[in-house]
Amino acid sequence: MVRRLVALALLSACGGAHVTEPGPESALTRWAEALERGDAEAAHALLDPETGAEVSVESLRTQLAENPTEVAEHVAAIRATAPRARAVVRLANDERVVLHREDGRWKLSGDLLGVPTPTTPEDAVRALRRSLRDPALAGVLRVLARRSRAAIVSEVERFLEDTADELSWRSEVSGNDAVVRTAGGWTVRLVRESGEWRVEDVVGTTP
């Protein structure tokens, strides 16, 4: 449970578009200090409203008291971590702009102005999402039989829905191979070719 709260504290610090404090570094430092002191009130104050409603101060105090080894391990991990904040802003046309925080400033990254730059596995998944929303796909689907077309449209819609939240993606890179997994269970396998990441396979979940 303490592990989950650490993750939620980090996400609540860096997931929004409006920044009112230096960044996740500040939240993590205060979280670690609260854990070290066993200060359940201070730790609870760092949780977002939804998480704070699920976990009471008394419950958190009990968890800290009953799990000293886990708490110490997480404090050590926080001290050794250099967090990199990321934010995803949804535009009016449903496109998403990804920003990373470096040296105290937010900087844009990934695909910009519709130009594909798949230099990371995540960039390639974004490019795939953009291609699946391209009006040209409708022309391809029109030549298919109704049953096949309906099945493909259903799969595309499920994929787009499940990959909408980029902050839930989990990426693993091994040499020139990579995997991006979604919270809903989709798996996108990628391969790096000539310095650019390309989608090799997409494995969906059972409807």
Low-confidence runs of at least 5 consecutive residues: 1-21
- SSE order, one letter for each helix or strand: HHHHHHEEEHHHEEEE
Can you count the helices? 9
* Relative strand content: 15-25%
Beta-strand segment tally: 7
**Biggest sheet statistics:** 4 strands, antiparallel
Mean pLDDT: 78
* Head-to-tail CA distance between termini: 30 Å
Shape: elongated
Rounded radius of gyration (Å): 21 Å
> What is the percent of helical residues?
40-55%
- Structural class designation: alpha+beta
What are its keywords?
4-stranded antiparallel β-sheet; alpha+beta; 207 residues; disordered N terminus; 3-stranded antiparallel β-sheet; 7 strands; 2 domains; 9 helices; 47% helix
Describe this structure in words.
Helix 1 packs antiparallel against helix 2 and helix 2 runs antiparallel to helix 6. The chain has 2 domains: 78 residues, no CATH class; 89 residues, no CATH class. The chain has 207 residues and is of the alpha+beta class. The chain has a 4-stranded antiparallel sheet, with helices on one face. A 3-stranded antiparallel sheet has the order 1-2-3, with no helix packed on it. The longest helix has 17 residues. It is elongated and about 65 Å long. The protein has 9 helices and 7 strands; from the N terminus they run ααααααβββαααββββ.
